[in-house]
Amino acid sequence: MAGEVAHVVYGARVLAFLGEKVKTPLFWVGTLFPDIKNLGAALKKHTHPDGVTLGSLAGENDFETGARVHAWIDHTRELFLSNQRMKERLRWHPFVPHSLKLLEDEILYDRFDDWEIIFRALNRVRDEELKIVSSRDQVRRWHDILQEYLAEKPSDESRYKLSLAIGLSENSAQEVNSVVASLRTDGEAVKLIDEFVRHLEILLQ
Length: 205
What we know:
It is a single chain. This protein has helices at 4-18, 26-32, 62-83, 86-89, 96-108, 115-121, 127-130, 136-150, 156-165, 170-184, 187-203. Helix content is 63%, strand content 0%.
């Protein structure tokens, strides 16, 4: 699974691919909504639809399209990392998958230049979200977590807060930052991230 910054950056690239099929910022709400499952929210239906392809990204509305883009990005990234033998190329640790996506978020943050549109899109809870999670408070909490995390380039502090918010212990959250620091100096980790960016561009040509 990609991180939340990555979903925005990659989502922007897919948005260019979709063109006129998306017309409103509700796309961004849909793109960032699916990982609400990390809060243990009670879901009325699966947030990551299966079998989404490039030809089936467009949903019935912009929110659904965003959620389908999210699912496609996650699946495409997981398949790519598996094919690139991530577990063999990186010094392994149980937190490597989570930490790699957080490092990816840090690297990608400056590649998107309109974070304000994301914050505005998350300023209110949408009916489309409440059709999946009935608790308005849980949806609002997810928006708050996202707005705080996306407010600036990821740092040890913001990663720590995010890790706690999705249920990791304090010790685990600190360990995640240590693994991120280790991956940052690992040429293979940064290379994997760059390779996926290029892979995505080729798919969207």
